[in-house]
Specification:
2 copies of one chain form a homodimer.
Chain A: H1 3-10, H2 17-25, E1 28-32, E2 37-39, E3 47-53, E4 56-61, E5 67-73, E6 78-79, H3 82-87, E7 94-97, E8 101-107, H4 108-117, H5 120-145, H6 148-158, H7 160-165, H8 168-175, H9 179-187
Antiparallel strand pairs in A: 1-8, 2-7, 3-6, 3-8, 4-5, 4-7
Helix pairs in contact in A: 8-9
Chain A binds a DNA duplex through helix 9.
DNA sequence: CGATTTTTTGAATCATATCAACGTACGTGG
DNA sequence: CCACGTACGTTGATATGATTCAAAAAATCG
């Protein structure tokens, strides 16, 4: 049984004891080493990963051969390449552990079987997607309506602890500017 | 019966004749005049709108009192403020028709009832959210990895017809730059 | 047709990138 | 456990893409 995940699901839908057991039977617990990849560009994404412990990033390599971070994956959140999953096509991105991590994999083929047995999960995942969509839309709003400096300060205010956890250049990449610029922002008195 | 929507649903899940009828019974057809709003900031979003005909935009007013377009809604696509719907909170944005339009409203309270009667719809909406999420994530990739000019040319190549349908300054807003800059891009020889 | 909305153009300015060099920290093998 | 190499962070000078403000020109609408 995986209490972290079951607790998370419990916030959105109600599962019986038996359903909880069925859910856990369809998952695979994976220990991931720092810097290890769960997904590499070119592969079809195996399924959805629930982060029990640790911190992951999803990124792609752009035309200038720079890494561009699309998203971070933290405790009690899902991470996957939904595009690759939905269309069963090779991914364009990478998912990598930034710290030693523990994740639960819900393999895509198990997902389909599981959703038939526990239909509430369809609802749970619909809500997860809705939340992810809203968050991403909001991020676009920030990108367009705030300067890089504002966005940086906003992020630091919201997630000061998280910023400590990752190298600065990764945060710069996520926020959409260069590490040099970020260094200047930090140097600047507020 | 609303064939456009039923066709669309049919691409993702299978509904019986009777289920199709039930779905349509929970919808409200609305004729929307040009410039009319389906949602105003401060209101709780009424539900999901399926665009049968016409073109809508979802936008917010930023700190500098400029309109920032978050998304367009075209034929055979859904538009709504998911944040407002999910959390039943007042919206921060507007949804407005750019042309005389015809939309189907699935009111939020009907949605819940309907999903119980036709569980495949939960799956259908899960997929809609997943598609929307992927599209928005991809948009962030474009914003970070392409210059404004590249993004403009990319958009024009993908959706030349759509670009004709809306004022330039709205496309500029969607792409994240000023109308003046867009005018200069157009003036420039390719 | 006049009124409003949308697009264009010019000049000045600003935010951020780029390139390059140097400083620091950190983890890995000897 | 130290030393070395690599990864990460800082700083300065210069370049550039995009914004701003202002005004005129063009298109659209009732």
């Amino acid at each position: 049984m995986y209490p972290e995940l079951l607790d998370h699901i419990g916030k959105y839908v109600t599962l019986s004891q038996q359903e909880q057991t069925v859910v856990c039977q369809h998952l695979e617990l994976k220990q991931v080493k720092k810097k290890q990849h769960l997904l590499q560009a070119g592969q079809v994404c195996q399924g959805n990963y629930f982060v029990v412990k640790g911190c992951l990033r999803q990124y792609l390599i752009n035309d200038k051969l720079n890494e561009q971070i699309i998203q971070f994956g933290l405790e009690n959140w899902w991470i996957a390449d939904q595009d690759s999953l939905l269309n069963q096509k090779p991914s364009q991105c990478y998912i990598q552990a930034l710290e030693p991590a523990e994740v639960l994999l819900l393999p895509e083929k198990n997902r389909k079987i599981l959703f038939e047995q526990v239909p509430q999960l369809e609802s749970y995942f619909r809500i997860m997607m809705q939340i992810a969509f809203v968050a991403t839309q909001r991020r676009i709003g920030f990108i367009f309506n705030m300067s890089d400096e504002e966005r940086y300060r906003h992020f630091m205010k919201l997630y000061p602890a998280f910023a400590q956890r990752i190298p600065q250049y990764m945060l710069a990449s996520y926020l959409g500017f260069t590490p040099q610029f970020m260094s200047r922002l930090r140097a600047k008195k507020v």
